[in-house]
Design a protein that fits this description.
single chain; mainly alpha; elongated
């Protein structure tokens, strides 16, 4: 059975009244989380199943109800967003990218590797390449030019292939390309 806090028992009447005047689903769930656990003696898991939310959300709803009843503002506005944003707002990201924008406008080729290196220095740790790709996507950057060469190319192997095939095709006499003469 869930913890039955005496402090929340005094909120049951208030919760029952607020359920009748609630304007959205969140308010109803917040009130019912108090009623289900304190008056009907449901466990937090059972209350979550009835309300259609997870167990931690029931606890969060109960705490939020207590704070609102005590006169504090709802923390729901602060919930959500980019939690793993390297502590950079969108404006700070734009500021970070501005030198690269200037370089691109000057005709210089801007490469993701240089942006990634500068970003890692700024945040103080290594980041995956996908982080930089998402950063550039957020700021509507796009790739304007295809790669000039394959990333795994080997120049020495290409030259060896050219030499090997050029000797094979051009080193033989012309008649060896023809099928054998049936008259001979």
């Amino acid at each position: 059975m869930a913890r039955n806090l005496n402090a929340t028992n005094r909120f049951v009447k208030s919760a029952l009244e607020q359920v009748k005047t609630a304007s959205d689903v969140h308010e109803i769930r917040r009130c019912l989380s108090i009623v289900l656990v304190n008056q009907l003696r449901c466990s937090v898991e059972e209350a979550g199943a009835v309300l259609g939310v997870s167990t931690p959300t029931v606890s969060r709803l109960r705490k939020e109800f207590q704070e609102v009843a005590a006169g504090k503002e709802s923390r729901r506005d602060a919930w959500g967003g980019r939690r793993h944003a390297f502590m950079m707002s969108t404006e700070e990201e734009s500021e970070f990218l501005s030198p690269f924008v200037d370089r691109a406008r000057a005709g210089e080729l801007v490469v993701i590797a240089s942006i990634r290196e500068a970003f890692e220095q700024r945040v103080g740790r290594e980041v995956p390449a996908s982080t930089i790709s998402r950063l550039l996507d957020r700021h509507r950057w796009r790739k304007l030019q295809p790669e000039p060469h394959h990333p795994d190319e080997d120049k020495a192997e290409q030259e060896a292939f050219k030499k090997k095939n050029s000797l094979r095709s051009f080193g033989r006499p012309r008649d060896s390309w023809l099928p054998p003469d049936p008259c001979e």
